[in-house]
Amino acid sequence: MKPLKTEPELFDLFNQLKIWAIDMYHITATKEQKKYDPIELIIRFQWDNIHVNHEKPEYYDNITMKLPKSHILFSTTFKNNTDTEQEYNFRTERCTRSIAEIEIQKGVLLSNELSIKLSVKIEEEEMNCCFRLRTTMYGRLRVLFLDPIHDNVLIKYLEGDLGTIIQERLKSDRSRENGLDTGPNVWTESMPKSNQRIFYMETIGKCKFRFGVHQFVEVNQKAY
Question: Which SUPFAM superfamilies does the entry link to (predicted)?
Answer without folding.
Answer: Aerolisin/ETX pore-forming domain (SSF56973)
